[in-house]
Amino acid sequence: MPEIHLDHAATTPVRREALEAMWPYLTGAYGNPSSRHRLGEEAARALDDARERVAAVLGARPAEIVFTSGGTEADNLAVKGLALANPRGRHALVAATEHEAVLESAAVLERMHGFAVDRVPVDADGRLAPASLRSSLRDDSTLVSVMLANNEIGTVQPVAELAEAAHAVGARFHSDAVQAAGWLPLDVAALGVDALTISGHKVGAPKGIGALYLRRGARVEPVLHGGGQERGRRSGTEDVAGAVGLAVALELAERDRRARADAIERMRDAFIRSVLAIAPEARLTGHPADRLAANASFCFPGTAGEAVLLQLEERGVLCSSGSACAAGSEEPSHVLTALGLDDATAQTAVRFTLAASTSEAELEQAVLALRASLDALRGLAMR
Ligand code: PLP
Questions:
Q1: Which of 139, 231, 365, 370 is the most buried (most CB within 10 A)?
Q2: Separation between Cα atoms, residue 222 and residue 174, nearest integer Å
């Protein structure tokens, strides 16, 4: 029985076009872009080209793109880097549902740099209301970080309004768009952000490459110190092939984004209806409408999320109990408890995330597998 992969928010396969574009820079044209000779210049040209193409997708200038080792590093650079370089105050705000890369970076500001950090609550759908942010902002607020879309529940944040609120008190605004890339427009001017994180492996590029958009004039304290690459904002020899792969994959993800999102959203909505029909006790988590097109996340009260996952895997369906990063931890997800769910309910979460390659037949099979899994667990519970 072929496996059905419904965990695309955890990662995606590398697109053939990205791999083919990367190949020359891993083999013959393997130069270090800082070298002055022909091989180096060839690599530097490829890096420039990748930077231009990533910038074009974001509506940014090439010099505003900093290549990083992925989303985690870009979030660290944005949160710590922007906060520490801005002398106006020591107050930072993050949404309570941010990814650990943002939350832990903010915790370092608190623990090691004397910052006060507010984790601003979200509503029951996971949305951070601009009014809530406004009431938490202070005159000495330096940085606000709110993701464009959540990795566990898919809820989309009103980033443009939130950025406007942050700017009204003179704070910088960063958004983690790792999950939004390929699904939502990433036009940095329309979003009004000072910094934006993307990660390659969520859009068909390899793991270990990402980028931070940093608005011109937004100063950052580097996180990685060394040879001064990336205009001093991120030292370390650049992953030329990775950057090329990111540029190609991101362009492709953007090219048919709207049509793909619409088609997947229709399939996802039918899937949600089927799940709620076979498991009326289930509860959809996240915003019912303002959510990523590919995300269907639920709580199944009366079960354990991890047990449902195991049962599903036995039936050939791969999904996750929340974010892959937090998987394996005993703690209930901070995202789900931030919605107001109690710990016990939060432990019953299962997240299905679709891709363009997902078929209706696969989803129908996944629903059958889910029904069998829940029946099996109920049977066990009754014995
Ligand atoms: N931010 C979000 C919202 C994510 O979902 C992830 C990965 O799951 C990251 C950041 C981290 O990105 P990376 O895996 O490239 O370090």
A1: 370
A2: 16
